[in-house]
Amino acid sequence: RYELWCVLGLGKSISKGDISYGLPVPATYIIDEWMTIRYTHVDPDYRKRAEPEALINKLKDIVKNDTMAA
Asked: How far is 60 from 70, CA to CA, in rounded Å?
């Protein structure tokens, strides 16, 4: 199993005592009632978050487009 981690480039992390199985990346999603992802913001730099104004505007766009489609 350690060999697999080495192939994936994680051998050094394991040998240093870090046995976590994932890399946390902050993310923001807007998911509609049909479980369709309508918006994503993913950035490995945890300091760069989705702007609240961008989220509000996207929600307004989704509501507007869904209303027009109905």
From this structure: 15
**The residue type at 23:** L
Task: Record the pTM.
Answer: 0.59
Dig out the tokens for 19 from the structure: 């046995």
Q: State the Cα–Cα distance between residues 45 and 25, nearest whole angstrom.
A: 8
Maximum separation of any 2 CA atoms in the chain, in Å: 57
Q: Which residues of 14-32 are buried (b: 16+ CB within 10 A; e: fewer)?
A: eeeeeeeeeeeeeeeeeee
pLDDT tens-place string over residues 23-61:
678 899 999 888 899 999 999 888 899 999 999 999 999
Residue 40, C-beta contacts closer than 8 angstroms, at least 6 positions apart = 27, 28, 29
- AA letter at 67: T
Task: Round to whole Å and give the CA distance between 11 and 42.
Answer: 26
